[in-house]
Design brief:
Layout lengths: L1 H16 L6 H6 L7 H4 L8 E3 L14 E10 L8 E5 L10 E12 L7 E6 L2 E7 L8 E8 L4 H4 L3 E7 L11 E11 L11 H4 L9 E5 L11 E3 L6 E5 L5 E12 L12 H6 L13 E6 L2 E6 L28 E5 L13 E8 L5 E11 L7 E9 L3 E9 L2 E20 L2 E20 L4 E17 L4 E20 L4 E11 L1 E8 L2 E20 L2 E17 L2 E10 L2 E8 L8 H7 L13 H9 L1
Parallel strand pairs: 1-7
Antiparallel strand pairs: 2-9, 3-8, 4-7, 4-9, 5-6, 5-8, 10-18, 11-18, 12-17, 13-16, 13-18, 14-15, 14-17, 19-21, 20-21, 21-22, 22-23, 23-24, 24-25, 24-26, 25-27, 26-27, 27-28, 28-29, 29-30
Bound molecules: 2-acetamido-2-deoxy-beta-D-glucopyranose (NAG) (11 copies).
Protein name: Peptide N-acetyl-beta-D-glucosaminyl asparaginase amidase A N-terminal domain-containing protein
Keywords: Signal
Pfam family, one: PNGaseA
Length: about 625
């Protein structure tokens, strides 16, 4: 039946693959299949698998780093528990306290069976990392995440409380305990011109320099949850009071978002008219368009149109082993320059930041960091918002369906323009901040609703122009997030389902800026394609095969990086890395010519999955 198969499709997505934080009850109903297979399996000769997300290695100075182990912890049965806390102290015994690069390193191992778990890391309430754990194997896995946290320098100069929230469940079925080390590495500045600070005159205005102060826009401890806010529906507005120092002259709001449960796959949610017509009560709807809206004292100041991060258990977990989905180990954060709005909040009083999500279903995890630059020469700055041009999003929906088959076209667009001046000891600086968004999603249901094809593109252009007394600084950022997703899910009617999926996913970015270091540019094209098939019984993948290809091309003023890598059935087929700037291979060529046979064969067992089936 169409309705029951769609029901199954989404139940499958939501409850079987990416165990949402709130679905404990379902989770514990499904322990039927396990009886300590993990300890019996795992022949010792099978090596530990190293999972990874493809990204450009962080460039660091040639100095010797000072490293601080900030947390060593085993995340076992942590569901419903408060975040794990640790005292952070800066590396006071380091030869120099002048650091030009600070890098966070997360190293983890896990063995057994476990779902992908979202986690967050906060220092003094400021979010440093939003990430997703890798799903382990019976034979064990290891993975490492590195993130440049230099922009949080001002925070890292003082002792702080580190909080890590990772809600895991460990029982007889879900045996994976995450063993984690978190280390911060501090690189003293190099005695070379490239890393020397420019003189005072050019180092003002925050361009290219970390903020003087970072205000946490997150929930306060103590909590039995993450420090993120939970946005549960389209009318839910989560608010946080904040007070900004009266000598601020520049402010950027960095927003972290992730989506779970009914909205984990928001980009594939059908429109409500389809759901109503087909009497589908359990299918998450509200269509596929989402917008995170940020307001100050009730006035909308900017938005985030998110990229589509697929967590390590998403769509087909076999796709993400060992190459993880784009953004899954280091979810992107999104900057909104609110400097033009400073004039409204420099009065020394409490103000309110608000987060909401257009069309949201439960649940979105959202919080933010407010990066603030302070005028060290004066106790008060003065400012005024001089232009505010923000229209609601223009959204269209074209529906054409008969029963559970049909086509949809959903589009949206929006622009923001804010301008304002701030007068400080650096002079009277006028800042214009623009955000332009365009979104298009075509969705097709066939095969009585069993088959779904989603083709979505989100375009974001953001620019900030700051007119200083003697020069113009600017930043122009363009991003495109393409997504193509094919899934065919067939319930065999005997507790077994088959699924075929094919997807491509991208995070492309162009950045062009002018600041105290002169002009800078960096172009990134990061594309993944993946094909998978699997047979699912209850909530376990009993057999299947996943293949993934990725091309990452970065070309910037600060160097180049190219990586082309492919995996199939847990094995890397090829892995090519180049650092020279000579190569000009456009990844779309590669993705277009991939002629790998489409994996529809059944009974191709991944080793640890085979063991699970034997238990049934
Ligand atoms: C983290 O793991 C990587 C990869 O195994 C290793 O090179 C690095 O030294 C580890 N970091 C720490 C702080 O142990
Ligand atoms: C964490 O650090 C300890 C001590 O250096 C080491 O024994 C352990 O293997 C590390 N664990 C991970 C997951 O890197
Ligand atoms: C939306 O979510 C909020 C917060 O959980 C809740 O108070 C409110 O009742 C919900 N509204 C609707 C229409 O469900
Ligand atoms: C709609 O679903 C409900 C609950 O499953 C069922 O009772 C009802 O008969 C269905 N109606 C139609 C028209 O299919
Ligand atoms: C809808 O589909 C049914 C059978 O699948 C068919 O009989 C009917 O003509 C279709 N309606 C339209 C308007 O195409
Ligand atoms: C700052 O510059 C703007 C635009 O040039 C002007 O309208 C405003 O009056 C100036 N503010 C001060 C305090 O001079
Ligand atoms: C973003 O900028 C590019 C290049 O200027 C332009 O082609 C595109 O239409 C812009 N997109 C939006 C959504 O404004
Ligand atoms: C997806 O849609 C875009 C237009 O938005 C189109 O150019 C592209 O070919 C489509 N991709 C696929 C695989 O159909
Ligand atoms: C379930 O049904 C499918 C299709 O009829 C069949 O291939 C499969 O072997 C069945 N599985 C079980 C466990 O009965
Ligand atoms: C799946 O992907 C392969 C390779 O990218 C492609 O050739 C094939 O047409 C795709 N199939 C579907 C149903 O999208
Ligand atoms: C996948 O790899 C396992 C061994 O790791 C092997 O037994 C199995 O046959 C492979 N499957 C395919 C389809 O290549």
């Amino acid at each position: 039946m169409a309705s029951s198969s769609i029901f199954a499709l989404f139940i499958f997505f939501i409850f079987l693959l990416h165990r949402p934080f709130s679905s404990n009850a379902n989770l514990h109903q499904t322990r039927l299949f396990v009886s300590e297979h993990v300890s019996q399996a795992a022949p010792t000769e099978v090596p530990i698998t190293r999972y990874f997300e493809v990204s450009r290695p962080i460039q660091v100075p040639r100095t010797k780093p000072c490293s601080v182990l900030v947390l060593q912890h085993d995340f076992g049965n942590t569901y419903g528990q408060p975040p794990v806390l640790a005292q952070y102290n800066p590396p006071l015994n380091c030869p120099s306290q002048d650091f030009s690069k600070i890098v966070l390193e997360w190293n983890a191992t896990c063995k057994g069976r476990q779902f992908d778990r979202i986690f967050g890391m906060w220092l003094g309430g400021v979010e440093l990392l939003r990430s997703c754990t890798a799903e382990p194997r019976g034979t064990g896995i290891v993975w490492s995440v590195k993130k440049d946290i230099t922009r949080y320098s001002s925070l890292l100069k003082n002792p702080q409380t580190l909080a890590v929230h990772l809600a895991n469940i460990v029982d007889q079925t879900y045996t994976g305990v995450y063993h984690v080390n978190i280390t911060f590495h501090f690189w003293p500045a190099e005695e070379r011109p490239r890393f020397q600070k420019p003189n005072w005159a050019s180092s003002v205005y925050g361009f290219g320099f970390p903020a003087d102060l970072i205000l946490p826009i997150s929930r306060n401890l103590p909590l039995n949850d993450g420090l993120w806010f939970l946005v549960q529906n389209s009318t839910d507005v989560q608010l946080k009071e904040f007070k900004i120092p009266q000598n601020a002259y520049r402010a950027i709001l960095e927003v972290y978002v992730s989506y779970h449960s009914d909205d984990e796959f928001w980009y594939s949610n059908p429109p409500n008219d389809y759901i109503t017509a087909n009497n589908l009560t359990q299918v998450p709807g509200n269509g596929p368009f989402r917008e995170v809206v940020v307001s100050i004292d009730g006035t909308v100041v900017g938005a985030v149109w998110p990229s589509t991060v697929i967590y390590t258990g998403g769509i087909n977990p076999l796709l993400w082993r060992p190459i993880s989905g784009i953004g899954s180990f280091d979810l992107p954060s999104y900057d909104i320059d609110i400097t033009p709005f400073l004039g409204k909040v420099l009065d020394g009083k409490q103000h309110q930041l608000g987060f909401s999500v257009t069309n949201a279903l439960s649940v979105w995890y959202i919080d933010a960091n407010l990066h603030v630059w302070l005028d060290k020469q004066s106790a008060r700055t003065k400012g005024k918002l001089i232009k505010y041009d923000v229209q609601p999003p223009v959204m269209t929906l074209v529906s054409d369906f008969n029963g559970s088959n049909g086509d949809f076209l959903i589009t949206a667009s929006r622009s923001f323009l804010l301008a304002g001046w701030v007068k400080s000891s650096h002079g009277n600086i006028t800042t214009q901040s623009h955000q332009y968004f365009a979104y298009r999603n075509t969705m097709k249901f066939g095969n009585n609703g069993n088959e779904q094809i989603v083709n979505q593109t989100t375009d974001v252009n953001a620019s900030v122009y700051s007119r200083l007394p003697s020069r113009l600084y600017f930043m122009d950022l363009s991003r495109r997030f393409p997504l193509y997703l094919y899934t065919n899910f067939v319930d065999q009617g005997n507790g077994t389902s088959t699924s075929v999926s094919n997807l491509s996913l991208g995070f492309n970015q162009q950045l062009f800026s002018h600041g105290p270091f002169g002009f800078s540019r960096g172009n990134l094209i990061n594309l993944q394609a993946a094909q998978g098939s699997m047979i699912v019984k209850g909530n376990l993948v009993t057999s299947g095969l996943g293949s993934t290809q990725q091309v990452y091309t970065y070309d910037g003023k600060d160097g180049c990086y190219f990586r082309k890598v492919s995996s199939r059935n847990y094995t890397i087929l090829y892995d090519q890395i180049e650092r020279s700037c000579k190569r000009k291979l456009h990844p779309s060529l590669f993705l277009g010519v991939n002629k790998r046979p489409f994996p529809t064969r059944r009974n191709l067992l991944a080793s640890d999955l085979h063991d699970q089936e034997k238990q049934v």
